[in-house]
Design goal:
The protein is mainly alpha-helical and 133 residues long. It has one domain. 66% of the residues lie in helices and 0% in strands. The protein has seven helices and no strands. Helix 5 packs antiparallel against helix 6. It comes from Winogradskyella wandonensis. This is Tellurite resistance protein TerB.
Length: 133
């Protein structure tokens, strides 16, 4: 299980990804709030992170890093209009988390083949398992 600092770091990273120099749209905001609730982050802490980002903390668990990467992909595809800049940014996030470059590339290449670009969790996990072994 991840601790509070890691949870705040994950959420802060997602907020920074969603902001992308612009305001966060309502769909992204709702998604981020639902992630905050799943992580048991209060609304006060959630809104605090928008103006005061937390320093990134690398997760120790490989499976938690995969889950976070999946959350970022879901967030990126909420508006179904991912830019090259966002793809590069999510690729770099994955690398920084210590995920396999081959697995990251495979997920990003294959996401267009799924409805609404939503990569099923089991499929994503299988890609990372193959690369991890």
């Amino acid at each position: 299980m991840i601790n509070r600092v890691e949870k705040l770091s994950l959420l802060s990273e997602m907020i920074a990804f969603a902001q992308n120099g612009e305001n966060i749209n309502s769909i992204e905001h709702k998604f981020l709030r639902s992630i905050a609730r799943q992580l048991e982050i209060s609304d006060d802490d959630f809104y605090y992170l928008f103006k005061h980002p937390v320093t990134y903390v690398n997760l120790k668990s490989h499976s938690e890093r995969i889950v976070q990467f999946h959350r970022l992909i879901l967030l990126m595809n909420l508006d179904q209009n991912a830019s090259n800049k966002q793809l590069i940014k999510i690729h770099n996030f994955g690398l920084r988390m210590g995920l396999s470059q081959e697995a990251i590339n495979r997920v990003l290449d294959l996401m267009d083949s799924f409805p609404n670009k939503i990569v099923p969790p089991d499929f994503l996990i299988d890609i990372f398992k193959v690369q991890y072994n």
